[in-house]
Amino acid sequence: MSWFHEAFGVESEFNGKIECRRLFGSWDVSAGGILQSGEYITKMWKKAVRRVPMNGIKKILVLGLGAGGCLGPLHKRFPKSRITVVEIDPVMVGIAKRLKMYPADCKPEILLGDAAEILPRLDSKFDLIIWDLFVAGHTAKIIRDSGFVQKIAEKLERDGHVIVNYYREPEELALFDVSLSRHGSWKYLYNGLALYRHFGRGRVGEALPDGYVPYRGVRDFLERECGSEKMVGTSGNAGCAGTRWKHGPFNFEGYTSDIEPQIDPHGPRRLVIWQPITRTDKPNGWHRSWIQMNPNVTGFADLRETDPYWASWTAHAQRHRERWLKEGMDIHEITGREFLEAYRSPSVKIELKTFQARLVEKKIKRHGERMVFFGAFGEVGNLIAGLAALDIPEANQSVHIASFMLPETKRTSVGVGLVDAWFGRCLSRSLRFADFDLFWSWGDPWSWRGFSRFKGQFGVTFIRYPKPLIRFAGGRKP
Description:
The protein contains twelve helices and 26 strands. The protein is α+β, with helices and mostly antiparallel strands. It folds into three domains: 5-197, Rossmann fold; 215-295 and 466-473, no CATH class; 306-458, 3-Layer(aba) Sandwich (Aminopeptidase). The strands form five sheets. A seven-stranded mixed sheet has the order 7-6-5-8-11-13-12. The protein has a seven-stranded mixed sheet with strand order 20-21-22-23-24-19-25, sandwiched between helices. Strands 14-15-16-17-26-18 form a six-stranded mixed sheet, covered by helices on one side. Helix 1 runs parallel beside helix 2 and helix 8 (315-327) crosses helix 11. It is globular, with a radius of gyration of 27 Å. The termini are far apart. The mean pLDDT is 91.
């Protein structure tokens, strides 16, 4: 009858009496009257870890083993990951092993002791950190220790995730909200959970680094961009510059800024499109568009974030940088004509290549010497890869415009080499930000994903824009 029902209790120095009950072959482990592991806990973590992408999770840190209820879902979703567990109660560890609460092929490294003492001693960083620290049925008091929460942030990889099980105490998330960016919170029956990432990972409304200004709102850039184009001109004021344009019989006016545009009531009847950057409110008179008419996600690298600048790159990108330096491939600045001739060659197979080539030509015409081109040359001296960027000194940044690589570069690190050369030039010109501009998001062509993943390796801070605000203006007589 033990399969149908079995129960026993164990005394613990840390959790008091731990009760273990089996019903129809399934074990539940409770401490302080609160369930620590069992079918309910397993289902809770199974749903929680689905919020974390499967790719890139190599190292997992679990703070609080309980009786191992989260290990099964973690091992199933990330079977090739290495799991490290910190648990203060040796009795819980013994119960987890005795009751076989996690799969036999899941072999976590279990560190026995106080998380406050163990965490600072860990050498590596982690792609996923699970907070499940409870003592005698209550959230561990260490969640109120700002130093410990900050240490969790320091142990998290740049693209990593943290999942916090706060049970029924949402106020305990206050320090996490200071050290990390909350990307979501949800309820699973009796438990509350929250998902955190580092700041700059693309949550709508996140603040930008001091000194960064999206170039689409810089008046000097907009004046050069409009140039002598017919039906296009600048608008707004110094604090919030924008453009006006005409498309067929329709007139438009657009702004990218967190400052509300001051709209001229005169002029032709037109649709005004205001793209906030971090603001999520809706001032009076504006309406929230139900479609994203502007870039959804952009990203830039702050070259002063780390010293050296490549210290913020992924380990994969840093390895390829070292490889490129050993290869000794010749990369230097070239002319726009050389870039376009190679870019238009039949060997370059890029979607929308004709459109991109025309875009580069327009940028050269409008911005002149501010356009910069890099070329990589093969063994016979032919141009095999290139990168085009636009310096915008008024915004203290350089913006990626286009790039290409020929098939013979497939087994080289020339792509990373081109980015490294671009970053180096930015620093030599005292430009702080290297802006990669557009990144893939849902609704964009699937073919963009690969290049977006490549660009995302270089210490990128992402901006995810809220839906734009719109209103009609104009039509009044002066």
